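Quick one: structure tokens for this chain, please?
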Amino acid sequence: MVGFEINDVPFNPDGWGPPDSTDSSNVPFAPFSRSDKLGRIADWTRSNPNTRPNNQRPTDSAFDFTTDDSFGGPLNPDDDATFRLVDGKPPPRPKFGPKWRFQNNRNQLPQRRDEEVEAKKREAEKQRARRDRLYHANRSGGNNNPRREAAVFKSSVDIQPEWNMLDQIPFSTFTKLSYNVPEPEDLLVCGSLEPYDKTYDRVTPKNERRLERFKNRNFFKVTTTDDPIIRRLANEDKATVFATDSILSTLMCAPRSVYSWDIVIQRVGNKLFFDKRDGSQLDLLSVNETSQEPLPEAKDDINSAHSLSVEAAYINQNFSQQVLVRDGNKVSFDEPNPFAGEGEEVASVGYRYRRWKLDNDTNLVVRCEVQSYMDINNQKSFLTLNALNEFDPKYSGVDWRRKLDTQRGAVLATELKNNANKIAKWTAQAILASADMMKLGYVTRVHPRDHFNHVILAVVGYKPREFAGQINLNTANMWGIVKSIVDLCMKLNEGKYVLVKDPQKPQVRIYEVPVDAFENDYVEEPLPEDEQVQPPVENGDRVDENGAKDDAEAKEVKAEA
């Protein structure tokens, strides 16, 4: 066997350890500092921390150096506060209950409770962020509505490749503008008005009124340059800029618009004319333009955007004539209706040609409209008459028949959210005409699938300027938009231009177009009600407006009509 040799071990007769004469030159030097972790063990000899006097802080180490000053001072007990003993307990077992049994994702493994809490927090944060986006989208007029991002809106006019784009103005620039104008002056008042029937102020959903039809009264929506009165005022140099209230209100409320629109601008000499293009749908009333829920895209659907616009235009015209006292007690003005022929029966309307002074070199003449009047303290107060229409409570979420009596404010708030642009334009037109009161009617369908028959549920009156404050419509901002566009167009050369609202972005663009543009456009007038989409089919029978339930009978009645 190989022997095991033991080196010499020096003997220390005076105590423990090697003698002082031991050679330690070959022992490696291992320096350390106070911050080094030399070792740590559990101390089981310490007393209960609850019984420790003066709430002395326990130490994790069995060797307490906090009072040792051999290393230059006492140790700070907080130096080791970040150290934690390893938790040796097993993790809690997951609980398999209905919460995991009915999850949408069947392959997802059960989570620990802390992970479940974190997942709920993340989901709550996503919901809050979504509500914030919807809130800001509604306040901005619906231009950033996430539910309508996928909808592709078409331009109101076909942009030709030979057109030259001169400028594009974002709506964010419009919202910062402000301009104050003095009170206008009336140059001429034409037409005649019938008095308002005050009994309609007492209409409620319980005693609703059937909406009548006025096919024998003619309504005129004449553009600026086709107006003989404006032509006469332009020849007399009464102003340098000419427009109608519908065109001007479209400019004033442009930041609230979602659908595309266009306005033709003609620069003739030192004069500027804002016109409606032939075939334009500027006079049609949009429905649910700023709503969160998109409308059906099929044009032949009775709830599509185009069908609802035509329906709203007819409702608005019929409502404006039904709420009048038709006893022949009309108020006539300086001149008769400038667009009516001899012996022709026209609707009750008064045209006020008013002039505003924009600056020392620029005057603006606008043709404003009022539909009725009231005698208050032996003075005549002018009224504007407009109607909001409900087509299906499922889209708005508020049933007018149930909510108008008890929650009229909620109904109006819903309409302000879904039709912010249309109501703002009505308010702007009432302010331009200096109407003393604007009457809003609430008209709904007899049945959600019947777009021929309607009833009036209520009529509410508002003072235009007070109502403008309620809907956050700033008159100084409206005039600031008009002034900026007029100043921009006054710098252009003589010719024809078109101002187009971008169908996808919140901005407008100005194009230079040929002089003969839009002259041969087809004039798309609203279809008569008898030629619109056929009435709904229920239980296999077709029910039309005249009560014919059979298809053959419906065709015969329509042929006779």
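The mean pLDDT is 78.
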